[in-house]
């Protein structure tokens, strides 16, 4: 594939295309996952403000579509390295809000049982590899997963997320380079949420990252990161390309981080107009309106999410703090790694593998 | 009298091998003692003259009682009489030598240091270092010097390894799986196979429990319908476990351990869950502070300890400290059992298989009819030393009520 | 039994594992067509193909990071840093991703990292380092350092089979200098087990890597004294029982490392001895190490810095006379 037809696809052009329509059940599912992410993060923030969450708290408010859309395009045997503003991706793979809330509070029953903080968790039984704080280290790990698929001649995909700031780091370039050289079956989801902590894009890079994919030898595609179906379709196409030996894709999803870098950050460096502009494009509300317009019972989805969160909160608050013996346990492994398969709710996948 | 095991409180002197007035050497067998676990020989802790025997053969005394007195060799007495420390006389020699070798060296006035190993050997063998020629720098008495001296004195050549703790010093021993007592070892039979270490340990524990406790078993039958409705794909065990904890709250006397005649009722519930290791045996990991867990929390913990038990990843403190045990062999379909109590607890609950049975149900108007219900026998073995049948029955009635009335 | 050099032994061990298990593969710079900077993987690309002998771009974080991803999916990557010194370019993936993943997530990371280390041939500051102490400060890593050809083969096999990240310190100066009989076929030298290079009673030298040869030479014939030499072989988790047993026997200890002085393996061993074998000591615990300087290039300067046979002899003599 030459770099000229690789080229990134601007948002305007995308609107003219006709991606396949998702069946109603899938659209409901997409909404449900986004609502679950929003509700869980709101509940967790409340717990944090009540003093029940130690350390820092990070959320991805406003980025629900970029978290859920790409994950929805995966199959059960695909593998993911999910990042801190992509809680929705964990839900798509099968993690429950109850275990997430317990995780935030550092309790037993949380995904890491107190070993790691906030969004630094992943369930290996669902095919997820846990993030580290140094970014974008997971981009290279995703390449490694893809190398395993390639060496074994399997049509599986590795997917990971990173932000605009991470593209400044040497490891991002090493990952892009290795992915391009070997045409790895990896999908890179770049969530450009306009801010790396307090650093805006113009201080982070001189060239829009999506354009740099061509320099590494593969396509870059820009999408409206607040349109869950658009992100989903871009990711589905990228997965398809990867599966058929077409190599990697960089998807740049344009979105906005509506809360601070962490709960402690009041975002005073963000111009007010920017908030207003992006609030009007809130991905969850937009999708609710669109589905309601198409006759979907959005209220019942909301109600079911609300009820699940209440149950989850009750369960999580019931969990004890971990036993101190956990602190020195598990430094070394006794057995080889066991990475399981995740849930894959996308209906076509179910059809194909019924 | 040394402590020959954590649970041993007394022992009997069987026979003295030396008489008062005899010379004894360190480590030479001095007397034979007996406990209800085993017979042992006790060696003399030091060399010297056996001055006095204070416990005669045939007498049983508590651990810690003085058995005899040994007078050690003269230099110690002279030394203590003179009130000097071992390096005293040496110090008198040293300043001159030190001054020769290191004029102007300050420090401790030219007295060479006594290194840790030399000090330890001197204490252990009651040696006066001033009597020993030092070949080290500044006339320091080295380890080799001490060893040569002892050889010269006709002392047995002490190997340089640290001496094992003397029997008098009663080291603490954990109740971890250990080698079986000799009397349990089976002589090899043609075609027979010796029991594995795990089986021997289980055998020893079970026999001991039967010997110690006055076992009785009381059984109730419980209608598991409510739990059946709630459990989905989960097993019954976490629900019954949660109900058991609640029942123990109402009847705290059953959450207790009995050690001889000392009954301790515990506030916390540390719940032992019997885990089968297949043909190899079984193990009972303890879920500490189980009372703080919901049935979901218990389900998670049970699953976790069971998995780790099978992978032999349990730590020693996960295998002790339980206050009540539940065993659930019901998966195999058996309906009744009389379990053996897990010492030193006073009761053990056995959840047997859940079987659909026709039962008589009475409606609000008092009319009887037959209905099909999932029923299970809850069998509890309990120690009649600590409680009577009435309490056992009341506890089980409460447990049955909680199980039959289950709501999350 | 055939006699192999240390380098041939590593090569053979690696080759045997690659033949026995096709999930084992190698990655590193210039290891394929060129056979590796030190020829450890000479001929491998012909036997195993370019996929299993991957000539990577010049990107150490990429080498280690992709190895982690492949390993958690069931492959067994053997990474090579061209020189141990370049681990600093891949340090982040090693200590933050590989080392901590099992602790945090229960996911094993069976990677092996080969580090050609050590000086003695005018390599200068960036080609002569012994950075093993850095890895002792990153819980989750195992570290081995063979000194003989037999152990080199057995330890590379054991490192590959271990489900944890294992850093394999292969001392460059031993590649051709260390030779010995090496068992044929596959075998593993257990991790965590030291080896008695020579038994003795008057004093023990505890050491590893190239310094084992230096220690043996220095104490062969030292004023008639009986001197024990204990080869640690595994630096983490190291064989505490062997160390303490040796100290109990001899009561005088010299710990030798080629690495620079502060906070190295020798400091750790000395602290252990002070804490747990205090009552067995008949003299202070002495360390022989390089001073805290970058390793210089010019031969007389390098010799002045790296511990020589005479340095070890002198230290032993001093302590024997204490």
What does this structure look like?
The complex is a heterotrimer of chains A (354), B (408) and C (322). Chain A is of the alpha/beta class and 354 residues long. Chain A has a single domain, classed as Thiamin diphosphate (ThDP)-binding fold, Pyr/PP domains (Rossmann fold, 3-Layer(aba) Sandwich), CATH 3.40.50. In chain A, 46% of the residues lie in helices and 9% in strands. Chain A contains 15 helices and seven strands. Chain A has helices at 3-6, 11-16, 24-49, 64-72, 87-93, 97-104, 137-151, 170-182, 201-204, 209-216, 228-243, 272-279, 283-293, 298-318, 347-352; strands spanning 79-81, 158-163, 186-192, 195-196, 199-200, 220-224, 249-254. The longest helix of chain A has 26 residues, at 24-49. Chain A is globular, with a radius of gyration of 19 Å. Mean pLDDT of chain A is 92; it is low at 1-16. In chain B, 27% of the residues are buried. Chain B is elongated, with a radius of gyration of 32 Å. The longest helix of chain B is centred in the middle third of the chain and has 16 residues, at 197-212. Chain B folds into three domains: 10-72, Beta Barrel (OB fold (Dihydrolipoamide Acetyltransferase, E2P)), CATH 2.40.50; 85-152, E3-binding domain (Dihydrolipoamide Transferase); 197-404, Chloramphenicol Acetyltransferase (2-Layer Sandwich), CATH 3.30.559.10. By secondary structure, chain B is of the alpha+beta class. In chain B, α7 (237-250) packs across α9. Chain C is α/β, with parallel strands linked by helices. Chain C has two domains: 3-181, Rossmann fold (3-Layer(aba) Sandwich); 195-320, Rossmann fold. In chain C, β13, α11 (265-276) and β14 (286-290) form a beta-alpha-beta unit. In chain C, α9 (210-219) packs across α13. Chain C is globular and about 60 Å long. Classes of the chains: A alpha/beta (354), B alpha+beta (408), C alpha/beta (322). Chains in contact: A-B, A-C, B-C. The interface between A and C is large, with 44 and 41 residues.
């Amino acid at each position: 594939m030459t770099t000229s037809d690789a080229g990134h696809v601007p948002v305007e052009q995308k609107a003219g295309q006709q991606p396949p329509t998702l069946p109603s059940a899938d659209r409901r599912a997409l909404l449900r996952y986004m609502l679950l992410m929003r509700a869980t993060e709101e509940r967790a923030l409340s717990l944090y403000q009540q003093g029940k969450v130690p350390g820092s708290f990070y959320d991805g408010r406003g980025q629900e579509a970029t978290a859920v859309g790409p994950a929805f395009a995966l199959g059960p045997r695909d593998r993911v390295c999910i990042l801190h503003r992509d809680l929705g991706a964990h839900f798509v793979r099968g993690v429950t809000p109850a275990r997430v809330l317990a995780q935030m509070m550092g309790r037993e029953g949380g995904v890491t049982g107190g070993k790691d903080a906030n969004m630094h968790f992943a369930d290996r039984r669902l095919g997820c590899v846990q993030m580290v704080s140094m970014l974008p280290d997971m981009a290279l790990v995703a390449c490694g997963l893809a190398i395993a698929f390639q060496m074994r001649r399997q049509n599986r995909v590795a997917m990971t997320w990173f932000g605009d700031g991470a593209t400044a780091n040497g490891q991002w370039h090493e990952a892009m380079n290795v992915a391009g050289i070997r045409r790895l079956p990896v999908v890179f989801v770049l969530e450009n949420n306009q801010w790396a902590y307090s650093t805006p894009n113009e201080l982070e890079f001189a060239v829009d990252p999506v354009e740099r994919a061509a320099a590494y030898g593969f396509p870059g595609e820009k999408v409206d990161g607040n349109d869950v179906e658009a992100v989903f379709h871009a990711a589905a196409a990228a997965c398809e390309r990867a599966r058929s030996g077409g190599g990697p894709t960089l998807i740049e999803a344009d979105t906005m981080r509506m809360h601070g870098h962490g709960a402690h950050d009041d975002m005073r460096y963000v111009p007010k107009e920017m908030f207003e502009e992006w609030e009007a494009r809130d991905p969850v509300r937009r999708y609710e309106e669109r589905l309601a317009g198409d006759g979907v019972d959005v209220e019942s989805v909301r109600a079911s999410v609300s009820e699940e969160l209440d149950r989850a909160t009750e369960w999580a608050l019931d969990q004890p703090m971990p036993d101190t013996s956990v602190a020195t346990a598990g430094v070394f492994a006794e057995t080889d790694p066991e990475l399981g398969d995740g849930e894959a709710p996308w209906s076509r996948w179910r059809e194909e593998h019924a | 009298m040394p402590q020959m095991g954590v649970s041993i409180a007394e022992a009997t002197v069987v026979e003295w091998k030396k008489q008062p007035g005899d010379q004894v050497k360190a480590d030479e067998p001095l007397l034979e003692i007996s406990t209800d676990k085993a017979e042992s020989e006790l060696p003399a802790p030091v060399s010297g003259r056996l001055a006095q025997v204070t416990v005669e053969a045939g007498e049983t005394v508590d651990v810690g009682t003085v058995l005899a007195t040994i007078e050690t060799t003269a230099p110690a007495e002279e030394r203590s009489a003179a009130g000097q420390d071992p390096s005293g006389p040496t110090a008198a020699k040293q300043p001159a030598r030190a001054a020769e070798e290191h004029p102007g060296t300050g420090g401790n006035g030219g007295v060479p240091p006594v290194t840790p190993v030399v000090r330890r050997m001197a204490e252990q063998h009651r040696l006066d270092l001033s009597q020993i020629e030092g070949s080290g720098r500044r006339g320091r008495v080295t380890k080799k010097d001490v060893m040569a001296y002892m050889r010269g004195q006709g002392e047995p050549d002490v190997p340089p390894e640290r001496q094992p703790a003397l029997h008098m010093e009663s080291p603490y021993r954990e109740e971890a799986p250990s080698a079986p007592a000799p009397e349990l070892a089976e002589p090899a039979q043609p075609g027979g196979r010796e029991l594995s270490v795990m089986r021997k340990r289980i055998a020893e524990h079970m026999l001991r429990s039967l010997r110690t406790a006055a076992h009785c078993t009381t059984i109730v039958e419980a209608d598991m319908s409510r739990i059946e409705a709630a459990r989905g794909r989960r097993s019954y065990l976490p629900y019954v476990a949660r109900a058991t904890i609640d029942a123990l709250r109402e009847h705290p006397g059953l959450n207790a351990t009995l050690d001889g005649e000392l009954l301790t009722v515990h506030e916390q519930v540390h719940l032992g869950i019997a885990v089968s290791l297949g043909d190899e045996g079984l193990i009972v990991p303890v879920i500490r502070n189980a009372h703080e867990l919901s049935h979901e929390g218990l389900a998670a913990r049970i699953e976790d300890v069971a998995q780790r038990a099978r992978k032999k990843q349990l730590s020693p403190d996960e295998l002790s400290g339980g206050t009540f045990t539940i065993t659930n062999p019901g998966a195999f379909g058996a309906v009744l059992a009389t379990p053996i109590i897990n010492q030193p607890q006073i009761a053990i609950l056995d959840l047997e298989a859940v079987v659909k049975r026709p039962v008589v149900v009475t409606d609000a108007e008092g009319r009887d009819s037959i209905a099909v219900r999932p029923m299970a026998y809850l069998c509890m073995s309990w120690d009649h030393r600590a409680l009577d049948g009435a309490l056992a029955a009341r506890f089980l009635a409460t447990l049955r009520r909680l199980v039959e009335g289950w709501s999350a | 039994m055939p006699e192999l050099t240390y380098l041939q032994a590593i090569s053979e061990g690696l080759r045997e594992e690659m033949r026995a298990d096709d999930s084992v593969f190698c990655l590193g710079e210039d290891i394929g067509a060129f056979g590796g900077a030190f020829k450890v993987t000479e001929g491998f690309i012909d036997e195993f193909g370019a996929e299993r002998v991957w000539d990577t771009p010049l990107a150490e974080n990429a080498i280690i990071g992709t190895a982690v991803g492949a390993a958690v999916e069931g492959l067994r990557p053997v990474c090579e840093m061209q020189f141990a010194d370049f681990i600093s370019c891949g340090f982040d993936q090693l200590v933050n991703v590989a080392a901590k993943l099992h602790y945090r997530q229960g996911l094993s990371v069976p990677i092996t990292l080969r580090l050609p280390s050590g000086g003695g041939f005018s390599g200068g500051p960036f080609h002569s380092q012994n950075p093993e102490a850095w890895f002792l400060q990153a819980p989750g890593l195992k570290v081995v350092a063979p000194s003989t050809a037999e152990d080199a083969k057995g330890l590379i096999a054991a490192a590959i089979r271990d489900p944890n990240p294992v850093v394999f310190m292969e001392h460059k100066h031993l590649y051709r200098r260390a030779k010995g009989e090496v068992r044929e076929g596959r075998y593993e030298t257990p991790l965590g087990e030291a080896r008695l290079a020579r038994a003795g009673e008057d004093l023990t030298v505890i050491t590893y890597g190239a310094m084992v040869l230096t220690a043996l030479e220095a104490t062969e014939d030292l004023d008639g004294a009986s001197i024990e030499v204990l080869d640690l072989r595994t630096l983490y988790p190291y064989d505490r029982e062997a160390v303490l047993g040796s100290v109990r026997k001899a009561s005088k200890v010299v710990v030798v490392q080629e690495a620079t002085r502060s906070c190295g393996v020798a400091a750790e061993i000395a602290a252990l001895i002070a804490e747990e074998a205090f009552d067995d000591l008949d003299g202070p615990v002495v360390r022989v190490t390089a001073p805290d300087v970058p390793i210089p290039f010019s031969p007389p300067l390098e010799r002045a810095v790296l511990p020589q046979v005479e340095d070890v002899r002198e230290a032993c003599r001093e302590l024997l006379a204490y």
